[in-house]
Design brief:
homodimer, 18 helices
């Protein structure tokens, strides 16, 4: 048993644990193998690489995406070790985007600590991100699965496309809900979908299972991002491990703001319309503006609407699993869909 | 004939053209197909992506790396279209590193024009670089060659490793020649080597040819980078399409400086030792320092030594081709090895 101490501890109290924790316990051998692979493959004789990568990857994080890969592989009855390599590859792709996002977003907190670029500089974060991204492909090549490579390389270009679309829409107070859904489908849900779809592919499942798991991952990813965007206006920093109000400060349009702006426009509330224009388009913000924004979101019911939509996608994710016979893995993946939404509490 | 106008024009005067130009003429159908593929695959509904990519890729550049792939494929007698996809992938990997390098290096000139990050911002350059890198892998997957994917994904992580090693050695006046050779082998020669090695792989050549072409690309890449590093202290901006003195201003240690510092240390010339310490380590430079640096390099024979080493690698690149029977393609690739060094004149 190579499971880390915190996982072993959980296993004694799994009855009361969260679905993510129960899943971690069930997948503890797999995840220990994935963690070992991650540590091994982020190593390099160029010391700055493991130092910086360790800062991010070692800080933990939820490991939600690689967990999806190993859990869906188990659901598909996969017997082999390629799922460990693909799970590690998925985490590397995610880590690379986080390192680049920190530079792009100028974040001040990541996984409860200072982002790497504020310690090692932007250049190091860009280049180590590139390194991890390339290493992800090295791992995929080792599996010998061209289909898995196709799925993950396609997801990678879609992610970058979503990130650029989001960047282009920054401070655009007229961003539509359709454009927002395109952005989160691409920048977040595409990797959840790919992380879940590679498993039936390496397990040799039929198209029905493959489509079902792709759909599960996609909907789970959408729910996850919607909750994230709601939490940015209402969560607690300690629970999130990142700053709240980041999106607001960047002038990033997310569903809560899109809904609040729509409400202000519908009621022709010029005070609110002017407020959103000033803080988003002109990007002129004072210390009290975030609090004002939160109260406008609450008044417009925008946070509730965002959470409702997250719940809708979470339910659809759950439903997608119905093509699989009932099993402990299916049940835990179903619970995980609920958990992604309920973590707000 | 889809060859661009400037290539058709060359074909009428090919006798007096440079080896690179002759190679472009010989490979004009191939390169037209590669150019079409590049344009097609850098497209995206997210307008900022083709706009930014077009600025870099459309500015031309030497297309030396994709040219290597198509020319070596012809040398190997390859009959198919995968070499176009791999050549486009090689150019995308190169373009992605250029976009990221511009952010890292804070360059002011790239291919004779303003770098993309000074027009669209650092964030856009980072993310569009990621997009092109992912698209490179999409193209490779389409070829169905797992060996080619292995070669190019491995080269990609080596490139990133070399870039980080170079970053870590910035302003380190004691950087050794060994470390410098490691950096340029990784950041530059690895892609030249991979661009040449994928051809015998898809053509189904024996290991002997594969190793020979890998060696050819590697040595050509080393020669290319050594000349680049010499030109940064002695070339002409108009010919280079980039600023001269960039390496000096960044405090980047390249072979010319390593040799000049070694000469200053050997002769215990404290004025020169102090000079290099101030401009590199302390990174305090005045307007006249670059001129002073160039004269110290010339006095130490450092530029000649750098060019001599480039010529040595160029000759080794040429020799590596001897395993192939004589042909027009072999002859032009041999000439290209000379040209990479002679472009200083």
């Amino acid at each position: 048993m190579n499971a880390p101490a915190h996982i072993k501890q959980d296993s004694t109290t799994s009855a009361g644990a969260t679905p993510a924790e129960r899943l971690l316990v069930m997948a503890s051998d797999d995840m220990a193998a994935v963690d070992a692979l991650i540590l091994e493959r982020m190593d390099s004789p160029v010391g700055m690489i493991p130092n910086l990568a360790q800062h991010l990857v070692g800080a933990g994080g939820k490991r939600l995406r690689p967990l999806l890969t190993v859990a869906t592989a188990q659901l598909c009855g996969y017997r082999g070790t390629s799922h460990h390599k693909l799970a590690a590859a998925v985490e590397f792709i995610h880590s690379a985007t986080l390192l680049h996002d920190d530079v792009v977003d100028e974040s001040e907190l990541r996984r409860g600590q200072k982002p790497a670029n504020l310690i090692w500089g932007n250049s190091a974060s860009i280049l180590v991100g590139d390194f991890l991204f390339a290493r992800a492909f090295n791992l995929m090549v080792e599996t010998g699965s061209m289909d898995a490579l196709g799925i993950l390389s396609n997801a990678s270009s879609v992610i970058a496309e979503g990130e650029v679309q989001q960047l282009a829409a920054l401070r655009d107070v007229n961003m539509t809900e359709t454009a927002y859904m395109e952005v989160i489908s691409a920048k977040t849900a595409a990797l959840f979908a790919a992380a879940s779809e590679v498993s039936p592919v390496i397990a040799g499942c039929a198209d029905k299972e493959r489509h079902a798991l792709r759909d599960y991952g996609l909907k789970l990813g959408l729910a996850f991002q919607l909750v994230d965007d709601a939490l940015d206006y209402g969560g607690f920093e300690s629970a999130l491990g990142k700053s709240i109000g980041d999106d607001f400060r960047e002038g990033k349009m997310t569903l809560p703001v899109i809904r609040a702006v729509a409400a202000a426009n519908a009621s022709e509330n010029t005070v609110e319309i002017d407020f959103w224009h000033r803080v988003i388009v002109d990007h002129k913000q004072t210390d009290v503006d975030f609090e004002t924004a939160v109260s406008m979101l609450r008044k417009a019911g925008a946070l509730d609407a965002t959470m409702d939509m997250a719940r809708k996608f979470s339910a659809e994710a759950r439903d997608a699993l119905s093509v699989f016979p009932k099993s402990q893995w299916r049940e835990t993946l179903e619970d995980l869909a609920d958990f992604v939404v309920d973590r707000i509490n």
